[in-house]
Amino acid sequence: MIPVSIITGFLGSGKTTLLNHIVRQSGMADTAVIVNEFGEIGLDHLLIEQAFEDTVLLENGCICCSIRGDLVDTLLDLERRVDNGELPAFARAIVETTGLADPAPILQTLISEPRLQQRYALDSIVTTIDAVNAGGQMDDFEESVKQIALADRLLLTKTDLLSAEGSDSLIARIREINPSAPMDLIDHGRAEPDILFGKAVGAQRDLSAWLHHGHDHGGHSAVSSFALTLDEPLPWDAVKSWLESIASLRGSDLLRVKGILNVAGRQGPVVVHGVQHVFHPPVELQEWPAGPRTTRIVFITRNIEKFALENALTAFVEREAMHD
Hints:
It contains ten helices and 15 strands. It is of the alpha/beta class. The chain has a nine-stranded mixed beta sheet. Strands 10, 11, 12, 13, 14 and 15 form a six-stranded antiparallel beta sheet that branches.
C-alpha cells in the first residue's frame, strides 16, 4: 500500500513553503507530490529532468504532478504511467490542498474509493496554521476550523510575529478544536519529511497514538473532540448499526471517527475509521497493544454531544441483547 499524506491549511498559512522545503530533502526521492498549480512550487533550481503533460520528474527523483480533474483520476493516471514505464515507481504520495479546501472529501475519497483501496492508504493529515491570522480565519471560515479539527499534526507558522500572550491565546483556542494532535512551531517551512509519514490508517496506524488522542474537551467551539471509553466487549452488530445510524442522521457533522474496539468473540482489536458519511471497512488486528483491552472511540464532531452518542450506543447494545 502506498501511503498518502495530506498537507492542508488556510490561505497564506505556509503549505507551499513547507512543501518546497520537504521536497528538497534527500529522503524524498521516491515520492509523488500532487499539487494544484506548478507555479506555486519553486521548481526552477531543482533541475527538471523530464517533463510530461501535467507532470515533471525532478532530478532528485520526486514526481511532481498537477491535479487534473479529481484526485482519483490523478492517482490512477500516475499509476498507469508507472506501469507503462513513463515514470519511476513511487513509494509515497503527498497531496497539497487549496487554502479554501475542506479536507473531508479527500479523506472520504482515500478511504472509500474502490479503485484506490487496493493501492493507496491514508497516512496522515498535516495542517499549517498562520499564527498571525488564524484567529480571524477561524471566526469567518468554517474550512479553517475543519482543517484544524481533522489534523493528525498541527504546524504553527509565523510565530515570530506574534507576542507570547497572543501565541498562548491562539494555542488555547486551537486546543479547543483539536486537543491532542502534536503541535510544532516551524520557521520558514523548515520541517522534516517524517512529520508526514509513518501513521497509515488501519493496521499500520500507531495504536498508542490513537489511545491517547481525543481527550474530552468542552470549549466553546461548535467543533469538539472527545473519546468514548468502554471496558466490556461490544457486540459487533450493535456497534455497526450505531455507527451507520450516526453516519446516516448526522454524517455532515461527523467530521472524523477513529476507534479501537473490543468486540465480543474477536481475539484482536477491531479498528474503525470514518469521515462524515463514509467509513473504511473495519480491520481486525492480530493482537492488542500493551495495556487493557479497552474500547476507545475518538470523535471529532460539530454540534454533536458526547452523551447523545453514549446513550445511542447503550440503546443499540441493549436492543441487541434482547434479540439474543
